[in-house]
Amino acid sequence: MPARDALSRAGGRPRSLSGREALGIGNGTAFMTGYLALAVARAERLLARAERLVGWTYRTLGCRRDALDVRLHDARGHAGQIRSAAAIRAEVERGREAEDTSRPLQEVYVIRCAPQILGACRDNIVHARQIVETEMNGASDNPVTIGGDPLHGGNFQGQQIAFAADALNAASVQIGVFAERLSDALTDPKRGVVDAPLLLAYDPGPTSGLAGVQMTATALVAELRHHAQMASTSSIPTNGGNQDIVSMGTLAARTAYDQTERLAPVLASVGLALSQLSFLRAQGRAPGTPVQAPAWMPSVQGLRHDRPLHDDLARIADAWLEPHVNEGASSNDGRSTYESRPTSERRPMNENRPVRESRSMHENRSVNNRSVNQNRSVEETPLPRTIAELPQTAWISRPRQPARTSGRTRNHTVTA
Q1: Which of 13, 51, 276, 306 is the most buried (most CB within 10 A)?
Q2: CA distance to 134, 275, 301, 311, 406, per residue, from 403 (Å)
Protein backbone atom coordinates (compact mmCIF):
# COMPACT_ATOMS: atom_id res chain seq x y z
CA MET A 1 0.00 0.00 0.00
CA PRO A 2 1.41 3.46 -0.88
CA ALA A 3 2.49 5.37 2.24
CA ARG A 4 0.21 8.31 1.40
CA ASP A 5 -2.85 6.04 1.27
CA ALA A 6 -1.92 4.31 4.54
CA LEU A 7 -1.38 7.66 6.25
CA SER A 8 -4.74 8.91 5.00
CA ARG A 9 -6.53 5.81 6.29
CA ALA A 10 -4.81 6.25 9.65
CA GLY A 11 -6.12 9.83 9.86
CA GLY A 12 -2.71 11.49 9.46
CA ARG A 13 -1.24 14.07 7.11
CA PRO A 14 2.07 13.94 5.25
CA ARG A 15 5.03 15.78 6.76
CA SER A 16 7.51 17.86 4.81
CA LEU A 17 10.94 16.34 5.35
CA SER A 18 14.43 17.59 4.68
CA GLY A 19 16.99 15.26 3.20
CA ARG A 20 18.53 14.67 6.61
CA GLU A 21 15.16 13.77 8.10
CA ALA A 22 14.25 11.43 5.26
CA LEU A 23 17.56 9.58 5.71
CA GLY A 24 16.92 9.28 9.45
CA ILE A 25 13.45 7.84 8.94
CA GLY A 26 14.79 5.33 6.44
CA ASN A 27 17.49 3.81 8.62
CA GLY A 28 17.22 0.35 10.11
CA THR A 29 16.78 1.60 13.67
CA ALA A 30 13.56 3.44 12.77
CA PHE A 31 12.22 0.33 11.06
CA MET A 32 12.99 -2.05 13.92
CA THR A 33 11.59 0.42 16.47
CA GLY A 34 8.32 0.77 14.57
CA TYR A 35 7.99 -2.97 14.12
CA LEU A 36 8.69 -3.66 17.79
CA ALA A 37 6.21 -0.97 18.85
CA LEU A 38 3.47 -2.86 16.99
CA ALA A 39 4.61 -6.15 18.51
CA VAL A 40 4.54 -4.69 22.03
CA ALA A 41 1.03 -3.32 21.54
CA ARG A 42 -0.18 -6.72 20.34
CA ALA A 43 1.57 -8.60 23.14
CA GLU A 44 -0.03 -6.33 25.73
CA ARG A 45 -3.46 -7.07 24.30
CA LEU A 46 -2.87 -10.82 24.25
CA LEU A 47 -1.50 -10.82 27.80
CA ALA A 48 -4.63 -9.01 29.00
CA ARG A 49 -6.72 -11.64 27.22
CA ALA A 50 -4.76 -14.47 28.84
CA GLU A 51 -5.39 -12.97 32.28
CA ARG A 52 -9.09 -12.68 31.58
CA LEU A 53 -9.23 -16.27 30.38
CA VAL A 54 -7.77 -17.35 33.72
CA GLY A 55 -10.42 -15.32 35.55
CA TRP A 56 -13.13 -16.96 33.44
CA THR A 57 -11.63 -20.34 34.30
CA TYR A 58 -11.80 -19.56 38.03
CA ARG A 59 -15.48 -18.64 37.64
CA THR A 60 -16.33 -21.71 35.57
CA LEU A 61 -14.59 -24.23 37.80
CA GLY A 62 -15.25 -22.52 41.13
CA CYS A 63 -11.53 -22.47 41.96
CA ARG A 64 -10.40 -21.38 45.40
CA ARG A 65 -9.50 -17.68 45.49
CA ASP A 66 -6.59 -17.81 47.96
CA ALA A 67 -4.13 -17.93 45.05
CA LEU A 68 -5.35 -14.47 43.98
CA ASP A 69 -5.26 -12.79 47.41
CA VAL A 70 -3.63 -9.38 47.15
CA ARG A 71 -1.64 -10.00 50.35
CA LEU A 72 0.00 -13.06 48.86
CA HIS A 73 1.34 -11.13 45.87
CA ASP A 74 2.30 -8.04 47.82
CA ALA A 75 4.42 -10.33 50.01
CA ARG A 76 6.57 -11.24 47.02
CA GLY A 77 6.68 -7.75 45.57
CA HIS A 78 7.04 -8.25 41.81
CA ALA A 79 5.08 -5.54 40.02
CA GLY A 80 4.01 -7.73 37.10
CA GLN A 81 2.77 -10.49 39.37
CA ILE A 82 0.76 -7.99 41.45
CA ARG A 83 -0.85 -6.50 38.35
CA SER A 84 -1.62 -9.86 36.76
CA ALA A 85 -3.24 -11.10 39.96
CA ALA A 86 -5.35 -7.93 40.08
CA ALA A 87 -6.41 -8.41 36.44
CA ILE A 88 -7.45 -12.01 37.09
CA ARG A 89 -9.35 -10.98 40.24
CA ALA A 90 -11.14 -8.27 38.27
CA GLU A 91 -12.44 -10.86 35.82
CA VAL A 92 -13.45 -13.24 38.62
CA GLU A 93 -15.37 -10.47 40.37
CA ARG A 94 -17.40 -9.70 37.26
CA GLY A 95 -19.42 -12.85 37.96
CA ARG A 96 -21.37 -14.03 40.96
CA GLU A 97 -20.10 -17.59 40.98
CA ALA A 98 -19.04 -18.90 44.38
CA GLU A 99 -16.01 -20.98 45.27
CA ASP A 100 -16.46 -24.73 45.12
CA THR A 101 -15.26 -25.79 48.57
CA SER A 102 -14.90 -29.38 47.36
CA ARG A 103 -12.05 -28.35 45.05
CA PRO A 104 -8.47 -28.82 46.27
CA LEU A 105 -6.81 -25.95 48.10
CA GLN A 106 -3.82 -26.30 45.81
CA GLU A 107 -4.89 -26.41 42.18
CA VAL A 108 -2.57 -27.42 39.35
CA TYR A 109 0.12 -24.87 38.60
CA VAL A 110 -1.53 -23.53 35.45
CA ILE A 111 -4.37 -22.22 37.67
CA ARG A 112 -2.66 -21.60 41.01
CA CYS A 113 0.54 -20.05 39.61
CA ALA A 114 -1.10 -18.04 36.82
CA PRO A 115 -0.28 -14.63 38.40
CA GLN A 116 3.36 -15.61 38.85
CA ILE A 117 3.75 -16.94 35.30
CA LEU A 118 1.79 -14.24 33.48
CA GLY A 119 3.20 -11.59 35.81
CA ALA A 120 6.74 -12.50 34.78
CA CYS A 121 5.65 -12.23 31.15
CA ARG A 122 4.11 -8.84 31.95
CA ASP A 123 7.44 -7.63 33.38
CA ASN A 124 9.18 -8.55 30.12
CA ILE A 125 6.53 -6.74 28.09
CA VAL A 126 6.73 -3.64 30.27
CA HIS A 127 10.50 -3.62 29.80
CA ALA A 128 10.10 -3.87 26.02
CA ARG A 129 7.62 -0.96 26.06
CA GLN A 130 10.03 1.20 28.08
CA ILE A 131 12.87 0.50 25.65
CA VAL A 132 10.68 1.24 22.61
CA GLU A 133 9.33 4.49 24.02
CA THR A 134 12.81 5.63 25.00
CA GLU A 135 13.94 4.91 21.43
CA MET A 136 10.90 6.72 19.98
CA ASN A 137 11.92 9.83 21.90
CA GLY A 138 15.64 9.55 21.19
CA ALA A 139 18.03 10.53 18.43
CA SER A 140 19.36 7.52 16.53
CA ASP A 141 20.74 9.27 13.46
CA ASN A 142 24.41 9.79 12.64
CA PRO A 143 25.85 12.32 12.93
CA VAL A 144 23.65 14.01 15.53
CA THR A 145 23.88 17.79 15.50
CA ILE A 146 23.57 19.44 18.91
CA GLY A 147 24.14 23.14 19.40
CA GLY A 148 25.59 23.37 15.90
CA ASP A 149 28.16 20.64 16.56
CA PRO A 150 27.93 17.48 14.40
CA LEU A 151 28.68 14.54 16.67
CA HIS A 152 29.75 11.39 14.85
CA GLY A 153 28.90 8.23 16.76
CA GLY A 154 26.84 5.08 16.77
CA ASN A 155 23.37 5.99 18.00
CA PHE A 156 21.97 4.05 15.05
CA GLN A 157 23.12 0.75 16.59
CA GLY A 158 19.94 -1.08 17.65
CA GLN A 159 21.18 -3.43 20.35
CA GLN A 160 18.67 -2.17 22.93
CA ILE A 161 15.77 -2.80 20.55
CA ALA A 162 17.15 -6.25 19.68
CA PHE A 163 17.41 -7.30 23.33
CA ALA A 164 13.93 -5.94 24.06
CA ALA A 165 12.47 -7.80 21.08
CA ASP A 166 14.01 -11.07 22.25
CA ALA A 167 12.61 -10.48 25.74
CA LEU A 168 9.19 -9.86 24.23
CA ASN A 169 9.53 -13.02 22.17
CA ALA A 170 10.29 -15.05 25.30
CA ALA A 171 7.20 -13.64 27.02
CA SER A 172 4.98 -14.52 24.04
CA VAL A 173 6.31 -18.06 23.95
CA GLN A 174 5.67 -18.59 27.65
CA ILE A 175 2.14 -17.18 27.41
CA GLY A 176 1.56 -19.70 24.62
CA VAL A 177 2.98 -22.57 26.67
CA PHE A 178 0.77 -21.50 29.58
CA ALA A 179 -2.36 -21.23 27.43
CA GLU A 180 -1.85 -24.66 25.86
CA ARG A 181 -1.51 -26.23 29.31
CA LEU A 182 -4.73 -24.50 30.42
CA SER A 183 -6.51 -25.72 27.29
CA ASP A 184 -5.27 -29.24 27.99
CA ALA A 185 -6.45 -29.07 31.61
CA LEU A 186 -9.94 -28.10 30.43
CA THR A 187 -10.17 -30.91 27.86
CA ASP A 188 -8.50 -33.86 29.63
CA PRO A 189 -10.54 -35.13 32.60
CA LYS A 190 -7.68 -37.44 33.65
CA ARG A 191 -5.83 -34.39 34.94
CA GLY A 192 -8.51 -33.95 37.58
CA VAL A 193 -9.17 -30.29 36.83
CA VAL A 194 -12.54 -30.60 35.09
CA ASP A 195 -15.41 -33.08 35.30
CA ALA A 196 -16.44 -33.42 31.66
CA PRO A 197 -16.09 -35.78 28.69
CA LEU A 198 -12.68 -36.20 27.09
CA LEU A 199 -11.93 -33.30 24.70
CA LEU A 200 -15.35 -31.86 25.65
CA ALA A 201 -17.07 -34.10 23.08
CA TYR A 202 -20.87 -33.97 23.03
CA ASP A 203 -21.01 -37.70 22.36
CA PRO A 204 -17.60 -39.20 23.18
CA GLY A 205 -16.53 -41.80 20.65
CA PRO A 206 -18.83 -40.92 17.73
CA THR A 207 -17.69 -37.26 18.00
CA SER A 208 -14.20 -35.86 18.53
CA GLY A 209 -15.03 -32.67 20.42
CA LEU A 210 -12.11 -30.25 20.50
CA ALA A 211 -9.48 -32.78 19.44
CA GLY A 212 -8.45 -30.72 16.41
CA VAL A 213 -8.35 -27.52 18.44
CA GLN A 214 -6.15 -29.04 21.11
CA MET A 215 -3.76 -30.49 18.52
CA THR A 216 -3.61 -27.12 16.76
CA ALA A 217 -2.67 -25.47 20.04
CA THR A 218 0.18 -27.93 20.61
CA ALA A 219 1.42 -27.48 17.04
CA LEU A 220 1.44 -23.70 17.41
CA VAL A 221 3.33 -23.93 20.70
CA ALA A 222 5.92 -26.07 18.92
CA GLU A 223 6.25 -23.28 16.33
CA LEU A 224 6.47 -20.62 19.04
CA ARG A 225 9.33 -22.51 20.64
CA HIS A 226 11.03 -23.08 17.28
CA HIS A 227 11.10 -19.31 16.67
CA ALA A 228 12.28 -18.46 20.21
CA GLN A 229 16.00 -18.41 19.36
CA MET A 230 17.67 -15.13 20.31
CA ALA A 231 18.42 -12.92 17.34
CA SER A 232 20.20 -10.23 19.37
CA THR A 233 23.29 -12.40 19.88
CA SER A 234 23.48 -13.58 16.26
CA SER A 235 25.60 -10.78 14.83
CA ILE A 236 27.27 -11.43 11.49
CA PRO A 237 29.74 -8.99 9.84
CA THR A 238 28.71 -7.25 6.62
CA ASN A 239 29.51 -4.28 4.40
CA GLY A 240 33.08 -5.38 3.80
CA GLY A 241 33.68 -5.60 7.54
CA ASN A 242 32.72 -1.97 8.17
CA GLN A 243 29.68 -3.20 10.08
CA ASP A 244 31.69 -5.70 12.08
CA ILE A 245 29.08 -6.22 14.79
CA VAL A 246 25.38 -5.61 14.24
CA SER A 247 22.33 -5.80 16.50
CA MET A 248 20.08 -8.02 14.36
CA GLY A 249 17.30 -5.85 15.77
CA THR A 250 15.21 -5.93 12.62
CA LEU A 251 15.11 -9.74 12.64
CA ALA A 252 14.38 -9.74 16.37
CA ALA A 253 11.52 -7.24 16.03
CA ARG A 254 9.98 -9.00 13.03
CA THR A 255 10.12 -12.33 14.83
CA ALA A 256 8.55 -10.87 17.98
CA TYR A 257 5.72 -9.51 15.86
CA ASP A 258 5.21 -12.78 14.00
CA GLN A 259 5.00 -14.65 17.30
CA THR A 260 1.78 -12.81 18.15
CA GLU A 261 0.21 -14.43 15.07
CA ARG A 262 0.98 -17.83 16.55
CA LEU A 263 0.02 -16.94 20.10
CA ALA A 264 -3.46 -15.58 19.41
CA PRO A 265 -4.97 -18.90 18.19
CA VAL A 266 -3.52 -20.73 21.21
CA LEU A 267 -5.40 -18.32 23.48
CA ALA A 268 -8.48 -18.76 21.30
CA SER A 269 -8.34 -22.51 22.02
CA VAL A 270 -8.85 -21.75 25.72
CA GLY A 271 -11.86 -19.57 24.93
CA LEU A 272 -13.37 -22.34 22.82
CA ALA A 273 -12.82 -24.88 25.59
CA LEU A 274 -14.50 -22.71 28.23
CA SER A 275 -17.43 -22.00 25.91
CA GLN A 276 -17.86 -25.69 25.06
CA LEU A 277 -17.71 -26.71 28.73
CA SER A 278 -20.59 -24.37 29.61
CA PHE A 279 -22.50 -25.62 26.55
CA LEU A 280 -22.14 -29.22 27.71
CA ARG A 281 -23.32 -28.26 31.19
CA ALA A 282 -26.36 -26.48 29.77
CA GLN A 283 -27.17 -29.60 27.71
CA GLY A 284 -26.82 -31.92 30.70
CA ARG A 285 -23.73 -33.54 29.20
CA ALA A 286 -21.44 -32.45 32.04
CA PRO A 287 -22.13 -31.71 35.71
CA GLY A 288 -22.10 -28.13 36.94
CA THR A 289 -23.75 -24.81 36.26
CA PRO A 290 -23.06 -23.16 32.90
CA VAL A 291 -21.29 -19.80 33.10
CA GLN A 292 -22.24 -17.13 30.60
CA ALA A 293 -19.42 -16.18 28.29
CA PRO A 294 -17.94 -12.72 28.99
CA ALA A 295 -18.76 -9.86 26.62
CA TRP A 296 -15.19 -9.87 25.28
CA MET A 297 -15.54 -13.49 24.06
CA PRO A 298 -16.81 -13.68 20.45
CA SER A 299 -19.94 -15.81 20.15
CA VAL A 300 -19.37 -19.50 19.39
CA GLN A 301 -21.95 -22.13 18.49
CA GLY A 302 -21.86 -25.12 20.83
CA LEU A 303 -20.38 -28.24 19.28
CA ARG A 304 -22.80 -31.19 19.03
CA HIS A 305 -21.39 -32.79 15.89
CA ASP A 306 -17.88 -32.59 14.49
CA ARG A 307 -17.29 -29.60 12.24
CA PRO A 308 -14.21 -27.68 11.11
CA LEU A 309 -13.25 -25.17 13.81
CA HIS A 310 -10.54 -23.38 11.85
CA ASP A 311 -12.75 -20.38 11.10
CA ASP A 312 -13.84 -20.09 14.74
CA LEU A 313 -10.22 -20.12 15.92
CA ALA A 314 -9.17 -17.56 13.31
CA ARG A 315 -12.15 -15.28 14.04
CA ILE A 316 -11.46 -15.25 17.77
CA ALA A 317 -7.73 -14.80 17.26
CA ASP A 318 -8.26 -11.89 14.87
CA ALA A 319 -10.65 -10.21 17.32
CA TRP A 320 -8.14 -10.50 20.14
CA LEU A 321 -5.28 -9.12 18.07
CA GLU A 322 -7.25 -5.91 17.51
CA PRO A 323 -7.25 -3.07 20.07
CA HIS A 324 -9.66 -3.63 22.93
CA VAL A 325 -12.51 -1.25 23.39
CA ASN A 326 -12.85 -0.24 27.04
CA GLU A 327 -14.70 -3.29 28.35
CA GLY A 328 -15.09 -2.08 31.90
CA ALA A 329 -11.58 -3.20 32.72
CA SER A 330 -9.86 -2.00 35.83
CA SER A 331 -6.68 0.03 35.53
CA ASN A 332 -4.75 -3.11 36.40
CA ASP A 333 -6.18 -5.12 33.53
CA GLY A 334 -4.05 -4.88 30.42
CA ARG A 335 -3.82 -1.79 28.26
CA SER A 336 -7.49 -1.31 27.36
CA THR A 337 -8.23 1.42 29.91
CA TYR A 338 -4.97 3.21 29.08
CA GLU A 339 -5.56 3.03 25.34
CA SER A 340 -9.04 4.51 25.70
CA ARG A 341 -7.78 7.64 27.43
CA PRO A 342 -7.33 10.89 25.47
CA THR A 343 -3.87 11.27 24.03
CA SER A 344 -3.29 14.37 26.16
CA GLU A 345 -3.68 12.26 29.31
CA ARG A 346 -1.30 9.51 28.27
CA ARG A 347 2.27 9.45 29.48
CA PRO A 348 5.00 6.98 28.66
CA MET A 349 5.69 4.30 31.27
CA ASN A 350 9.16 5.78 31.73
CA GLU A 351 7.56 9.15 32.46
CA ASN A 352 10.04 10.04 35.18
CA ARG A 353 12.99 9.91 32.81
CA PRO A 354 14.45 13.44 32.57
CA VAL A 355 14.16 15.15 29.19
CA ARG A 356 17.57 15.79 27.67
CA GLU A 357 18.56 19.42 27.36
CA SER A 358 19.38 19.08 23.68
CA ARG A 359 15.67 18.52 23.00
CA SER A 360 14.40 21.67 24.67
CA MET A 361 17.28 24.16 24.46
CA HIS A 362 17.97 24.13 20.74
CA GLU A 363 15.95 25.29 17.79
CA ASN A 364 16.08 21.87 16.16
CA ARG A 365 15.29 18.79 18.26
CA SER A 366 16.05 15.19 17.33
CA VAL A 367 13.05 12.90 17.67
CA ASN A 368 12.45 9.57 15.97
CA ASN A 369 15.67 9.76 13.94
CA ARG A 370 14.86 13.15 12.50
CA SER A 371 15.49 16.81 13.31
CA VAL A 372 12.09 18.44 13.62
CA ASN A 373 11.85 22.19 13.15
CA GLN A 374 9.82 23.67 16.00
CA ASN A 375 8.10 26.06 13.58
CA ARG A 376 6.45 23.35 11.46
CA SER A 377 2.86 23.96 10.44
CA VAL A 378 0.31 22.84 13.05
CA GLU A 379 -1.56 21.12 10.21
CA GLU A 380 1.05 18.37 10.14
CA THR A 381 0.47 15.21 12.14
CA PRO A 382 2.40 15.38 15.44
CA LEU A 383 5.04 12.74 15.92
CA PRO A 384 4.10 9.94 18.35
CA ARG A 385 6.13 9.80 21.54
CA THR A 386 4.56 6.67 23.05
CA ILE A 387 3.15 3.43 21.65
CA ALA A 388 -0.36 4.53 22.60
CA GLU A 389 0.03 7.66 20.46
CA LEU A 390 0.85 5.75 17.27
CA PRO A 391 -1.74 6.14 14.49
CA GLN A 392 -4.77 3.98 15.12
CA THR A 393 -3.99 1.68 12.21
CA ALA A 394 -0.91 0.66 10.31
CA TRP A 395 -0.79 -1.79 7.44
CA ILE A 396 1.80 -4.51 7.10
CA SER A 397 1.36 -7.07 4.37
CA ARG A 398 2.33 -10.37 5.94
CA PRO A 399 1.51 -13.98 4.99
CA ARG A 400 -0.93 -15.60 7.36
CA GLN A 401 0.35 -18.54 9.39
CA PRO A 402 -0.44 -21.86 7.64
CA ALA A 403 -2.02 -23.25 10.82
CA ARG A 404 -4.62 -20.52 10.63
CA THR A 405 -5.35 -19.81 6.99
CA SER A 406 -3.55 -22.43 4.92
CA GLY A 407 -0.86 -20.01 3.82
CA ARG A 408 -3.12 -17.45 2.18
CA THR A 409 -1.68 -13.96 1.94
CA ARG A 410 -3.62 -10.76 2.46
CA ASN A 411 -3.16 -7.29 3.81
CA HIS A 412 -4.19 -7.26 7.41
CA THR A 413 -4.68 -4.49 9.90
CA VAL A 414 -2.25 -4.05 12.74
CA THR A 415 -3.34 -1.54 15.32
CA ALA A 416 -1.02 0.08 17.79
Answers
A1: 51
A2: 35, 22, 21, 11, 6
